[in-house]
Structures are given as structure tokens and as C-alpha cells.
Amino acid sequence: MSTEILIIDDNxxxxxxxxxLIKDAGYETRIAANYNQALIEIDxxxxxxxxxxxxxxxxxxxxxxLLSHIKSKNKDIPVIIISGHANIEMAVNSLKSGAFEFIQxxxxxxxxxxxxxxxxENFNLKNKNKELETKLxxxxxxxxxxxxxxxxxxxxxxxxxxxxxxxINGPAGSGKELVARxxxxxxxxxxxxxxxxxGALLDVKKYxxxxxxxxKPNGVISYGALEKASKGILLIxxxxxxPLETQSKILRVLIDQKFKRINGDHDxxxxxxxxCSSTKDIKSEIKLGxxxxxxxxxxxxxxxxxxxxxxxxxxxxLLIKYFLEKISKSYNIKKFNxxxxxxxxxxxxxxxxxxxxxxxxxxxxxxxxxxxxxxxSIIKESxxxxxxxxxxxxxxxxxxxxxxRENFEREYLTTQLKKFGGNISKTAKFVGMERSALxxxxxxxxxxxxx
Length: 451
Hints:
Radius of gyration: 28 Å
Oligomer: single chain
């Protein structure tokens, strides 16, 4: 597909010069002669690159307003600003607003085309990277046969057709965003945007700006996440980190289904499905006074709970096989072997959950080609925890033999149960015991049924 460049200038001679130059370079063009025509062209179809004159027929900042309008739709589109009334302040302001380059009239044609060519390269590179990331991430499936993952798959299937707000709870790296994306992909809003607002990464002073947007004195509009996600889904990640004052405003939006931008006078109607996620226990946060209970009940129409990877060990072999396939293909390398019964993999606590497991496999892929011995060495080196091992040994040596043996059996059998997803029959077969005998042993050791 050929690259398309939108030329916006109220001077017919400039438009024609730019049009000829750009077409001679092998690019397609579209033209707008005033502010309203420009809006129509932008809203009809976003260009790959835009060249915009600052002063059109509406006022001194027309070009900056159009720049903001384009960036609100796709921040990656390079915009070259041109002006016959340029000064340093105008150049700085346009670059701060997201312009790719600023050039003054009369312009050197060769210099302008250098800007255009670099803008096209920049856009194509970002698109290529985005395609690769999207292809890789969106192709990921929710892998596992543990009861927890099976339940979540069923919940996603049932929730996707509804408009209910969803609250996803789970430790960092467990797959909360993946679950939200799966819901979006299967929902009626799948053709709409999927926007993420991370409550943990925002400056405290910018929460409302990021959510509601802003109307600046010069007429430039900065769009917030609620508008960017219109007709789609907004995922508010780590919602527990949002300040109480902003929480009350979010509650008002959920009740009224409308809001005002910062410094704005007009109500903006909300057409967005909200999904929230958190690594924290929200009920504890409510008790501590850090989160509004009334807001939680509005957001928590349906709750999805993702277990930590250490509580669904039976999923580890499946995840390893899956990531090996995906990552080997992504890096275009020969698939290597990982012993899924490796005790370091099974007994490790996985504080980073599925993300940590994926990163481990990717690290090994980068270091390939690998022998089986090298793979085992990397796993051991990456996952060993000498402090924890030393503590366990010292703790064991402090007990009499009988008690130490019971502690070992309790830990061993608990690990094996997790490995087989709480399935008593499979665990009994693996450890070499009768099913009934294993039941008695577990009861005697005080190990509860994992199901």
C-alpha cells in the first residue's frame, strides 16, 4: 500500500508546490485548503503523514488544533508544521504539542523533502513494530488446564457478550491484561478501541487530565482516556492507586454517564465499557480507607480472580511448551528442549508469575543454541534462591527427626498436589501410593484438599 500524505495550506501556490514535490517522490497526496476541509479529510481517513500550515482561515492556531486532533486519533502519525509567521516560541510550542518537525516559509524544498522522507520512515517503523508486538501479544492464548484457568475461560465466554463492568484481581504478571484483551476481542465492542490507563504509573497530579482530557485557553483539546476509548473498552490497571478525590469523580461519571473535560463547559457523554484490575486486595484497601466502597461496588459487577502461578503448578509444563513454540518462532531459531519436570521449575515460587516464566524462556532463546546441560544451568542460575534454601535447611535441622520428616512430607506432597492441579488420583500414581493411603497421609499431615 502506498504512503499517503495530507497537505493542509490555504495558499494555493504552496499547495501546488508541495503536491508536485511529494508526488514526484512517489507518494500519494490529499489536499485541504482550509480548516473545515482539513477536519473532513482527517476524520474521513487518517493520513500516514500530514503537512499543516499554522495559520488557516479560522485563526492563528488552526494548525496546532489540527495537530492535536490528529494526535488524539493516532499519536504515531508524524505531523510537519509549516509557517510564514514563525518565531521560536511557535516552533517550541508545536514540537511540544507533538509535531515531528517545524519548518519556516519560504522553505528549502530539499530540506522539506528530507523531513517528509524521515517522517515516512518513522511512521513505517512504528507501524512495523506495532504489528509485530500486536501479532505476538494478540496471538497469545490463556494457557493451562488448572481449575482456575478453566473457570476463567468459561467466565470470559459468558461475559464477552454483556456490557457488565468487570474487576480482575490477581498478582503482577499473572495475565490480567491478557484476560481483558480476550474479553474485548470477543465482545460487541471488538471493532472499537482498547485503551489502557495504568493507575500505578501516573503522576498524582495528572490522573484527571489522563482520564477526562483538557480544553486549553488557545482552543486546543487534549483528549482523555474516556474519550479515546469511546465505543470500546477502557482498562484501568491498578485502579487501587487512584487518589480518593479522583475516585469520587469516576463514581460520578459512572452514575451520570457523562463528564466535563478540565476547563471545559460542555458535558461529554460516555460510551465505554470499563474493566478494572488490581494486584491488591481491594476489600483490605477499603477497610484501610484507601478505596471507596461505593465505587468498588459500581466497578465490581463481576469479578475474575487469577491465581498465582505457584498455586497452579500443573499449568507450568503447558506454558513452557507454549512459550517455547511462540518465542522460537518469533526469534526464528530452532526449538530447544526444556525438562518440564525440572525441580527448580516446579518448586520455584514464581513471584513474577507467568511473565517471569515467559521472560526466562525468552532469555534462553536469546542465548541459543543451547545444549540440555546449558538449559538446566540457566534455569538453576535464574531460579535458585540460596537464602531461602539456607533458611529451609536451618529450619529443618532445628527439629527432631520425626517432625523434620513430617515437614518434608507435607511440603513434598503439597508441591505434587499443586503440580497435578489438586488431582488426588494423578498425585497418588506419581508418588507411588494408593489413593486411599494418600488421603489418610494428607489428613494426618494437615494438608487441605486444593480443590
